[in-house]
Structure formats: C-alpha cells, structure tokens
C-alpha cells in the first residue's frame, strides 16, 4: 500500500501537502502529533473533503481537544470513522489531560492497521497487544524534539523487530526544537537469516511529504513465525 507522510508547518501547507501526496497515489495519509496547537486549529472539514475526493484514508495528526490527545481517523468516504487516544501522557500533559484506555485497529484495503500516539510507543505492551490482534502496519504520529531523536528511532526499530510489523511515523516539524525526520521501516530478513529493520522512507528537516510503498505480504512469514513463538507465562515470586 502507498502511504503518504506529511510534515507541515501550519494548516495551509498541511492541506496542500496532503493533497499533493494523494495526487501522487497515496491511499492513506498520516500527519504528525501537535503540528497545530489544538484540534480547533485543524481544518478537519478540508481533510474530510480530500479523503472523499481521492477515496483515501487520512489521519490528520494527533491533537489536544481540551480533554485528551486524540487522533481522528477519516475514512475514504470522508466520514469520521473513529478516534484514537493517547494512553501514556507525557510530562505536563498529565497535569491537564485525561489518558485514553483503548487502542484502535482498523482494516483498509486488506491490511490491518493500528494507531499508537508518540509516547505510547515507549511501552512495549501496547504494540505487542496490537500485534497479537493481527496488525500489519502501525501508524505513529509524534512530536519528538531534536535531542530525543536518536532514542526515538531506537524505539521504532525495536518495536519493528519485536513484532515483525511495519511502522510509519510522522514526526512534527517545528524548528528549532522539532526536526521532523519522519521515518518508515519494515522487518526484513538479511542474507545471514537475521531479521533487521529496513528503512523504506525518510524525511529530513523541512516541510514536505513522502510516499512509502509497504506490502505486508513480504514480511507475513516473519510475523507468522513470531506469533508461533509467543507464549503466555506467569511470574512467580520466591
């Protein structure tokens, strides 16, 4: 599937870049966390029109709505299909907002997707639960600062390896603190037999978009093998 990742600075470019990605063949478009201050600053109706016009799914990012951090999911008819909520609030978010308590899975064009918002990726149990429910591609809107980028990439790499899934990350671009550098990766078996995370798309520190083409069938056997290896266990305290 062709997935568009957009790094905007403001609403006007968010819409124009999303449309450019859709014109280039994106079947689903993902935007970052908090590229707009809150949900009231997001032109949701415009995103809905684009989704309907190009018969594509759009996740316009993740934003504060005064209660939680939410990621709206717009389907290919332009309807609001659902809302994902951030479960693990970060730092001062905890003082103002209420965490979510469920994760979102959806099927689109034969592929099962999950959504995980920024800090939630730090917690392996969330992605593992999505993996056990069959997701093939994880969509991750984020707002990670420049000094945290190296460790952020490690989290993405590890979740890809642990669960043998594709990950598409849209990270906020808002200089000087937030560098963009959105990335997409999939698991791939190397000639030595070791599974490694392969980067299939990467943006720099600029406004822009990219299209990544991910075919989960290429790593389906890796997911199947990992599912067979997963066992339940108990913890016994001595």
UniProtKB/TrEMBL annotation:
It comes from the Archaea. InterPro entries: C-N_Hydrolase, C-N_Hydrolase_sf, UPF0012_CS. Keywords: Hydrolase. One of its GO terms (molecular function) is hydrolase activity. The keyword Hydrolase applies. Coiled coil: none annotated. The keyword Hydrolase applies. SUPFAM superfamilies: Carbon-nitrogen hydrolase. Residues 1-216 form the CN hydrolase domain. PANTHER family: DEAMINATED GLUTATHIONE AMIDASE, NITRILASE-RELATED. This is Carbon-nitrogen hydrolase family protein. It comes from Sulfolobus tengchongensis.
């Amino acid at each position: 599937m062709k997935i568009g990742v957009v790094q905007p600075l403001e609403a006007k470019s968010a819409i124009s870049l999303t449309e450019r990605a859709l014109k280039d063949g994106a079947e689903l478009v993902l935007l970052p966390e908090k590229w707009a201050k809150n949900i009231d600053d997001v032109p949701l109706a415009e995103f809905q029109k684009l989704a309907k016009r190009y018969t594509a799914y759009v996740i316009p990012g993740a934003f504060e709505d005064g209660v939680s951090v939410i990621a709206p999911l717009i389907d290919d008819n332009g309807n609001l299909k659902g809302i994902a909520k951030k479960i693990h609030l970060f730092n001062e978010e905890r003082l103002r907002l209420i965490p979510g308590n469920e994760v979102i899975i959806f099927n689109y064009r034969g592929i099962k997707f999950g959504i995980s918002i920024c800090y939630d990726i730090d917690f392996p149990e969330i992605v593992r639960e999505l993996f056990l429910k069959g997701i093939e591609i994880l969509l991750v809107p984020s707002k990670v600062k420049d000094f945290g980028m190296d460790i952020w990439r490690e989290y993405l790499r590890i979740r890809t390896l642990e669960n043998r899934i594709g990950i598409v990350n849209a990270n906020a671009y808002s200089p000087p603190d937030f560098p963009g550098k959105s990335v997409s990766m999939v698991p791939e078996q190397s000639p030595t037999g070791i599974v490694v995370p392969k980067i299939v798309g990467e943006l720099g520190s600029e406004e822009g978009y990219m299209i990544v083409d991910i075919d989960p069938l290429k790593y389906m056997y890796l997911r199947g093998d990992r599912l067979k290896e997963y066992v339940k266990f108990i913890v016994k305290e001595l």
